[in-house]
Amino acid sequence: MQRLSDTQFQQWRADANVLEQDHHGEKVLLLADGTMLKLFRRKSWFSKTVFFPPAQRFADNALALSKLGIPCPQVIATYKLLNPYRSVVHYHPLAGETLRGLLNAEQSLEQLELFAQLAEFITSLHDKGVYFRSLHLGNIVLTPDSQLGLIDISDLRCLGRPLSRSMRNRNYRHLLRYEQDWALVDKSARALFPLFSSRS
Fold this sequence. Notes:
Blueprint: E1 2-3, H1 6-14, E2 17-22, E3 25-30, E4 36-41, H2 54-67, E5 74-82, E6 85-92, E7 97-98, H3 99-104, H4 111-127, E8 130-132, E9 140-142, E10 148-150, E11 156-158, H5 165-176, H6 179-182, H7 187-190, H8 195-199
Parallel strand pairs: 1-5
Antiparallel strand pairs: 2-3, 3-4, 4-6, 5-6, 7-9, 8-11, 9-10
């Protein structure tokens, strides 16, 4: 990881749009050239992120997903910003619209076809050994060429072997717990995910 000077960061920040922030500060910036910066704070000095910065995990995961043929952001560089400390990843965003965004848009949507594609995509992820603990409809993108891909990928592991049944079920349970998302999904599309019936 390179050191990111405060001067360079402030130059980027001056013309950027803040896409996400919290009471600790900015988290995601859209830069003037269309690329993005994602900033990760260190939650404590004794955190494992001292040795495994989230920005580097993001970059490593992007490389692993690309090797598996899974659409994802393309990383340009990773940085350390010292004051305040942040690990930073600079990347080209994955083009497209999140499934959450599509559900919330006021337009017709062939949900059954889309969610059949989603079910196949998740099975493919699991078969390829991808375990994404933060998997939800806001992290899955439908690209302009009608593929599904992943974003916000720092909290992800590529295990190099198909997931066990218990890991697959945990991943599905996490996906299905976002009730506000799934309330917008037709019953016929929800039926493609058998764990819905096990929760009722």
